[in-house]
Amino acid sequence: MDKWFESEFNSYDGLTLFYRYKKPQTSCKKALIFLHRGHEHSGRIVPFADTLSQDNYWCFAFDMRGHGRSQGQRAWAMNFDSWVKDLNSFVGYIKQAFDINIKDTVLVANSVGSVMAVRWILNYGPDLKGCILGAPAFAIKLYVPFALPFLRLVSKISQFQFVTSYVRSSLLTRDKKEAAAYDNDPLITKKIGVNVLVTLFDAAKNSFQRLEDFEVPVLVFTAQNDHIVHNRTHAHFYKQISSRVKRHILLQGFRHAVFHEKDQHMLVEPACKFLETLFCHDGKQLPAVIPQARSHTVREYAQLHDRGSLPKRIYYFIYRLLLTRLGQFSNGIQVGLRHGFDSGVSLDYVYQNKPSGRNYLGLLIDRMYLNSVGWKGIRQRKLNLKATLLTVTELLHNQGRAPVIFDVASGPGRYLFEIQNQLDFAVYLYLNDADDHAIKHAKNIADHYQTNNVFYSKINVFSSFKAGDFNKTPNIVIISGLFELYENNQHVHSVISNLYDLLEEGGYLIYTGQPWHPQLELIGRILNNRNGQRWIMRRRVQSEMDQLVESAGFTKLSTESDGFGIFTVSCAQKTNTTCGKGG
Q1: What rounded mean pLDDT belongs to the chain?
Q2: Could you give the CA distance from residue 94 to residue 232 in angstroms, rounded to a whole number?
Q3: pTM reported for the whole predicted model
Q4: Which CATH number is correct for 373-573, 3.10.450.50, 3.40.50.970, 3.40.50.300, 3.40.50.150?
């Protein structure tokens, strides 16, 4: 077998993580990324990676933060999503350092690593070749009654609490040599942070609410004698996902650590065949093809337009009545009722996150309103938007190009003025919005920041933007919080295609997505939009949104997601290497 090399990379927050990699015998760009189990490290998965890859693929594996030779407090992370973000950072690093495209990559994961893989796929929508999931830890057996509620309480008291795993090596594998290796490995961490464990359960639950969004080719292995996780969740996962290529195999006699078990041929042979099938067949949609809307999201959209059953109508009528009556004491709810909850003015209030009301009751209601999960996600979306925007503005500046930013539906655009005020070089802003009140609000914010180089317009987003509308050609275009308001992919594609023509060569498109929302029906039934109608949204899974962008000629570069899986911020570039536009 070829030699494994060792190195390090910096994750999303600057933490240094350790990783291993191995080159294939022949020159190729096909790759396998391996995710180790909880408590373990990447070195543990090397023998299985050698067997599976047969030196035909690049192999990569990293130590999760707090594990193995990676930095971070042992067995701890802020939450489970930190590990998912590390995976996203690792994939981006591999692309940059080794020129390996995600389209030529298969994820191979065991246990908790499998939950990471599914969570990452759902939240970030990578155009992944496929994944192999071994004994996914979708539902861990805790055995102790009321253990999870107790752990939730403990996590609220302190972030730095730990539990020690009850798992003995004999529960993981029947192979005595592998069991001894587990017992004697000094890098294995037997404990886990309580907050990581609790948020792992939450992440799995969230993922199971979104299984129809999962489209990646997948091979699932279930260990027949698994003492660690509930196997029934594997069958449910397999049945509900939308993947056209999928297979579920029950490994007779296997225990949980399937990559370290006896009779490896029972796992390796179908896994190798699965890999061969994936890499020999490119079933991906061409970038020039406008994607079809995902049928289950179209059904959701249609159901929200339907009035629903009589009990449902009564329930939401009472809910709306309470909103209007009690909401009169809350400044935030009053802004939403007056201008639309999706309006730029309303979002600007949410971004500032300062509860206010007419009295103590109003203050309490406003605090509850601002603390809803959707608004928490919106505020994280703003942070991700600013971080992405800072990155591309600095890239352009380093190339000797003055950043010219055009926000298609800007609202008051407070974050744009914050960015402009933060940078020490010239940035030109073009704010466009159909709402006169939003533009007026934007001008007041501009006066507050005493800013220059700002231009305003009220161009219909579905009309043609022309170069003559701008003194300087935009090299950054932002589309935020817009497309979920429009169901038709042809219309959305038309807007993106028009912006592609407008954008300077080598410029960047920053676009937001809404792959999922836990309050979609509540919002659609009781909240009003800026036009005074019900605020009904047609969410798009991340891959559908990405395909719309690629269909206009862009090349996607990155995606950031909040910790809830609700909102994403992605970046794409206009280059001369694209395949052309769809029609």
Answers
A1: 94
A2: 35
A3: 0.92
A4: 3.40.50.150
